[in-house]
Design a protein that fits this description.
It contains no helices and 17 strands. It has about 180 residues and is mostly beta strands. The chain is rod-shaped, with a radius of gyration of 24 Å.
Length: about 180
């Protein structure tokens, strides 16, 4: 028997597998002589196995982020039982958090924020599970570009500007748009 995973998946450098509730998990097995009659799977840690032979993919919905242990086995038509296969996956449906850092606080006058043309702006983001993939930024509604922390952020010119920022993790979860 084997696990098949389809959809958003990320395996980190330590072999830890991260998935979302949009990732399908299927246990399959074949017996070339008598055929597979049942495939039992437990993804809720209850110890109660459910026959999933004809179910297709199973999705980890209505669950909190974190470790999920799935295990299963197959039974052929003459009653032979395979070894139990078990694996952990880590559910990650939470987007990264984004921070816009300004070295000198803006000055507000008449509801408008003003910054010096020498103000240093930097962006950062954190993701607790699968890891940060990228930060994207846009000035004044232009196309979003990948942020490079080694390149200083400089306002395009003197005047009124809007900086929009979002981040994605390694599963494609995207943060909400932050504006400054």
């Amino acid at each position: 028997i084997k696990f098949l995973i389809a959809g958003p998946v990320h395996t980190d450098e330590n072999g830890v597998v991260y998935v979302t509730n949009q990732t399908g998990i299927k246990l399959f097995g074949e017996d070339e002589l008598s055929g597979t009659e049942f495939i039992y799977l437990d993804t809720i840690g209850s110890g109660e196995m459910e026959n999933v032979l004809d179910k297709g993919f199973i999705y980890l919905t209505d669950r909190d982020d974190g470790a999920v242990y799935a295990e299963g086995y197959a039974v052929d038509y003459v009653g032979n039982i395979s070894d139990t296969l078990g694996a952990y996956v880590y559910l990650d449906n939470t987007p990264p958090s984004v921070h816009i850092d300004i070295d000198v606080p803006p000055v507000e006058a008449s509801g408008v924020q003003y910054i010096s043309p020498f103000t240093k702006i930097s962006l950062s983001a954190q993701d607790a599970l699968s890891g940060l993939d990228a930060i994207y930024m846009s000035w004044n509604g232009a196309e979003f570009a990948r942020y490079d922390a080694n390149t200083p952020i400089i306002a395009p010119e003197t005047g009124s500007h809007v900086l929009q920022v979002f981040a994605t993790d390694k599963l494609g979860n995207s943060s909400e748009l932050s504006e400054f």
